[in-house]
Design brief:
Chain lengths: ~140, ~220
């Protein structure tokens, strides 16, 4: 039975590594708890910068913390739920090496965004300075459109 | 093949999220997500930042777990087990879509007073309108602080990216329903392996993976 099972899986052309069926679901539930704890930690950070109104480096630090926690979640989902961690080395590299492009994408595009913002601050008139209407306009129902 | 498709889809979502990031950092002002996403069904106007989206995140992680359990039962070639966990996964997918429908409706129909061309108007969040701009000091309307319009990109990126993700969730649910009927019909028992469940499982986890980053980029940061 066991032998036949292995053969059936190996006969499929798209499976590079026929792993033994896991004996129990302990690993799955452990991953679930890790993901849950990471999500709660993210929420705690997200709410903390709402409650305490942080600025500058502290805010960047909190946001960086949330990004790192998200990347940890991604690693757990990919390596255990999608079992990329159990695949052969070539398979892992095929998937992971192209993702390195993202390092350049994110850096280049955010850099561009910041440059754009600097140009805006330098040359645009601030769009937020709108003049409040006279008091009777705001209170009169007819003036509310 | 599923891995290669997912790799290409990663770049699609990556491109969308990076363009969102570029526009966002180029704006002098961007709405605070804790302020925008603070509603919960049946809770009226209670200020509950991030509560509802946490529930959605939990539902999606949970459905990912039930999908792994279905794949696990597939390895053991236990047809009844695969059917049971697939049904839970389908239920999780529908719950997530329902939550998203509620949230979209809330954002589109929930209007806020905004000062446009010297007149106060009540507008909701759509792909071309955003009521969450900076506050106009000292101007109130029906007891609510009046603001100026926020950056338009906020709504377009939010609805565009969560919509594209929701479309993936919907396709995933349809695939899972197909898998459920194929399992019930004994197709995989005849083939001798449950490999197809694994492939659909990969897709489903990918949808969860994308949500991790959508959650990060739109709700947390």
């Amino acid at each position: 039975m066991e032998h036949e099972h292995q053969q059936a899986i190996a006969s499929s052309p798209e499976i590079t590594f026929a792993h033994e069926p896991a004996p129990n679901t302990k690993r799955i539930w452990k991953t679930f708890w890790i993901l849950l704890v990471l999500t709660i930690a993210e929420l705690a950070l997200g709410l903390s910068h709402y409650i305490f109104h942080m600025e500058g480096w502290l805010l960047l630090f909190v946001k960086g913390g949330m990004i790192i926690l998200s990347l940890c979640k991604a690693v757990y989902i990919v390596s255990i739920f999608m079992h990329l961690g159990d695949e052969i080395r070539n398979m892992k590299l095929t998937i992971l090496v192209p993702l390195l492009l993202f390092i350049w994408f994110v850096t280049a595009f955010l850099w561009d965004g910041v440059a754009w913002k600097n140009l805006r601050n330098k040359f645009d008139r601030p769009s937020t300075e709108q003049v409040a209407p006279a008091a009777h306009d705001a209170q009169k129902p007819g003036g509310l459109d | 093949m599923m891995w290669l498709f997912l790799l290409s889809d990663t770049f699609t979502f990556g491109a969308l999220l990076i363009s969102y990031g570029t526009i966002r950092v180029s704006q002098p002002y961007w709405p605070d997500p804790n302020h925008v996403y603070n509603a919960f069904p049946l809770m009226g106007h209670a200020d509950l930042p991030l509560a509802f989206v946490s529930l959605m995140t939990f539902i999606l992680i949970m459905s990912s777990v039930t999908m792994v359990l279905a794949v696990h039962e597939g390895h053991k070639r236990n047809r009844a087990g695969v059917e049971k966990w697939l049904l839970w996964t389908i239920l999780g997918g529908f719950m997530f879509l329902g939550c998203q429908a509620w949230e979209w409706t809330h954002l589109i129909t929930g209007s806020h007073p905004v000062l446009i061309d010297g007149v106060v108007k009540e507008i909701g969040t759509t792909i071309s309108m955003n009521p969450f701009g900076p506050a106009v000091p000292g101007l109130m309307h029906d007891g609510h602080q009046v603001t100026v319009p926020g950056p338009i990109g906020f709504g377009s990126f939010f609805f565009g990216i969560t919509g594209f993700h929701g479309f993936h969730v919907f396709s995933g649910v349809m695939l899972n329903i197909l898998m459920y009927f194929w399992t019930r019909g004994g197709r995989f028992d005849r083939l001798g392996h449950y490999e197809m469940i694994e492939k659909v499982g990969l897709y489903w986890h990918f949808v969860d993976l994308v949500w991790v980053f959508v959650f990060l980029c739109f709700y947390l940061i």
